[in-house]
């Protein structure tokens, strides 16, 4: 493409000697010949001049962000499985679909943006937005090519997203997108996004609080409370209250219509397939409460699982109580109770016997995780309050100090949207959603003591019966 301002100057310079030679020639002849020379000069320039001087320079795009680990359909999460995969963005046909690709930069300034993409027939017009700036591009290339979108402005360091939305199309689909490309000054520093392990990257970082316990104390019971603030009860969240060395106990949001209280114990036999566990290593169900479903689980270790469908509510506080004690034939029994704050009653969830184990409760902890990849772009938070342990001598001990940790996704820097610690007399944890506050991993936090031990009549609790 020829830039008109540059062409005019070059034409005048190249034509000057030729016009001098035509002095004395008739005006009409000069006009005709001059027009010929202008056309000829333009043709020569378009072929011979330095292309960088007469065409728009290509954007410098130095980083490739794969949609498979970094992009979400944000206005209808059910579309994520159909539209976003390890290959990129596919099956994009609805003009209402809004797709965001997330990344974090520690620099500000201009950010170049491009897309590796193709259109499957016809042409498509797309809207691309970043931090309030919107550009529109029209594309028609039938093979995957790098398409320059333009230059945007990053005003503050932190998480940002590039948003795509379809405007017009002549084919069935808007486009297939393999990469979101960035470069320029704002991308020159540390750029944070998910580069591998897309499944875990899409789930987001899991966070944990490990409670400090008195030394030389055998823990028979572990008590904890959880309050999920309103609007923080996001689908796919597991607010785990009573974790221990061999299992976990907490509450989940499984769907828009179902919530559960979940209690699981790992088998001492390490496998991802519960069917492969030898008989002598299998978790034994000793009993379960009313309305509780029991079975096996796999994929994250294997063992025995129990859950009760229970419509717990955001804003309410729920209590969890777990017992662990050595049993017969080198085994340990674990029993979980859940307190329904509305019915004001302790409910037995289940009791499991773990073979080849002889211990009281070890490593009391809590965690917060997202187990649904399609909602990894949404933040969630839980308040973990009033932690106590009851020892074998009949004494309560309040747990006011905890170590904050996070999983491999956080530790390797794929995602840094995680936080946790103490506020007043509460611990809290927060993850996912691409927020910018961050708590340093492996730090200790201390809450204010409540000083009032739980009042529980252990003898009145429902006994496990199969």
Radius of gyration: 32 Å
Distance between the termini: 81 Å
Quick one: how many beta strands?
A: 30
Arrangement of strands in the largest sheet: 19-20-17-16-15-24-13-27-30
CATH architectural group of the largest domain: Sandwich
CATH topology group of the largest domain: Jelly Rolls
Helix coverage percent: 10-25%
Tell me the domain tally.
Answer: 3
Main sheet attributes: strand count, strand direction, barrel closure: 9 strands, antiparallel
List the total number of helices: 7
Low-confidence stretches: 1-55
What would the keywords be for this entry?
disordered N terminus; 466 residues; mainly beta; Jelly Rolls; nine-stranded antiparallel sheet; 3 domains
What can you tell me about this protein's structure?
The protein is mainly β. The chain has three domains: 4-54, no CATH class; 63-193, Galactose-binding domain-like (Jelly Rolls, Sandwich), CATH 2.60.120; 201-460, Jelly Rolls. 13% of the residues lie in helices and 44% in strands. The strands form five sheets. It has a nine-stranded antiparallel sheet with strand order 19-20-17-16-15-24-13-27-30. Strands 14, 18, 21, 22, 23, 25, 26, 28 and 29 form a nine-stranded antiparallel sheet that branches. Strands 2, 5, 7, 8, 10 and 12 form a six-stranded antiparallel sheet that branches. A hairpin with a 5-residue loop joins strand 16 (247-253) and strand 17 (259-266). Helix 1 crosses helix 2. The longest helix has 22 residues, at 27-48. The chain starts with a helix and ends in a 20-residue tail after the last strand.
């Amino acid at each position: 493409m020829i830039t008109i301002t540059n062409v005019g100057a070059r034409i005048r310079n190249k034509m000057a000697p030729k016009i001098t030679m035509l002095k004395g020639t008739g005006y009409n002849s000069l006009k005709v010949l001059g027009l010929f020379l202008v056309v000829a000069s333009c043709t020569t320039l378009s072929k011979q001049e330095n292309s960088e001087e007469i065409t728009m320079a290509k954007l410098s795009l130095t980083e490739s962000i794969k949609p498979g680990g970094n992009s979400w359909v944000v206005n209808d999460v059910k579309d994520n499985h159909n539209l976003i995969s390890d290959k990129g963005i596919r099956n994009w046909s609805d003009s209402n679909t809004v797709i965001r690709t997330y990344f974090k930069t520690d620099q500000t300034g201009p950010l170049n943006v491009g897309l590796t993409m193709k259109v499957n027939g016809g042409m498509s017009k797309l809207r691309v937005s970043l931090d309030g700036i919107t550009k529109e591009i029209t594309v028609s290339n039938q093979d995957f090519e790098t398409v320059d979108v333009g230059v945007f402005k990053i005003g503050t360091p932190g998480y940002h997203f590039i948003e795509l939305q379809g405007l017009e199309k002549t084919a069935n689909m808007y486009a297939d997108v393999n990469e979101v490309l960035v470069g320029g000054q704002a991308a020159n520093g540390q750029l944070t996004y998910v580069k591998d392990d897309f499944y875990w990257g899409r789930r987001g970082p899991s966070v944990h609080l490990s409670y400090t316990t008195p030394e030389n104390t055998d823990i028979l019971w572990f008590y904890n409370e959880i309050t999920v603030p309103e609007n923080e009860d996001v689908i796919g969240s597991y607010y785990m209250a009573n974790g221990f060395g061999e299992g976990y106990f907490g509450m989940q949001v499984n769907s828009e219509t179902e919530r559960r209280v979940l209690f699981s114990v790992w088998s001492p036999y390490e496998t991802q397939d519960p069917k492969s566990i030898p008989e002598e290593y299998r978790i034994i169900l000793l009993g379960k409460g009313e309305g509780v479903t029991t079975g096996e689980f796999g994929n994250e270790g294997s063992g025995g699982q129990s859950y009760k469908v229970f419509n717990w509510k955001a804003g309410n506080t729920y209590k969890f109580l777990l017992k662990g004690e050595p049993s017969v034939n080198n085994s340990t029994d674990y029993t979980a109770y859940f307190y329904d704050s509305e019915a004001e009653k302790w409910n037995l969830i289940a009791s499991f016997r773990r073979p080849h184990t002889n211990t009281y409760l070890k490593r009391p902890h809590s965690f917060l995780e997202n187990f649904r990849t399609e909602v990894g772009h949404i933040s969630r938070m839980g308040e973990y309050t009033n932690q106590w342990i009851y020892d074998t001598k009949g004494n309560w001990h309040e747990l006011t100090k905890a170590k904050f940790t996070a999983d491999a996704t956080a530790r390797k820097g794929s995602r840094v949207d995680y936080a946790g610690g103490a506020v007043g007399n509460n611990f809290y944890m927060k993850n996912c959603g691409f927020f910018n506050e961050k708590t340093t991993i492996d730090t200790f936090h201390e809450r204010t003591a409540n000083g009032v031990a739980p009042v529980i009549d252990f003898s009145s609790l429902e006994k496990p019966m199969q």
